[in-house]
Amino acid sequence: MDARAAVLDLIAEIAPEIDIEAVPDDEDLRDAVDLDSLDFLTLVERVHETTGVDVPENDYDQVRTLRGWSDYLVARAG
């Protein structure tokens, strides 16, 4: 699984107006692509639906960035 590409695809579904190629790896996604709280929670839910990886609220700080998402998913993918 290409975790980075999977997360980018989901971000594009949630916020289609975003230039997906310009999403930085290490900037907080809520700032970088203007995801509000509901969008972020939708992303967490869609990641779970797509990958089967559950992201508990305590881990939200680990998935603030695109690199964080990638690392998190790679570490937990079965």
UniProtKB/TrEMBL annotation:
Domain of life where this protein originates: Bacteria
Chain ranges of the Carrier domain: 1-77
TM segment ranges: none
Gene3D superfamilies linked: ACP-like
Name of protein: Acyl carrier protein
Native source organism of the sequence: Longivirga aurantiaca
Taxonomic lineage of the native organism: Bacteria, Bacillati, Actinomycetota, Actinomycetes, Sporichthyales
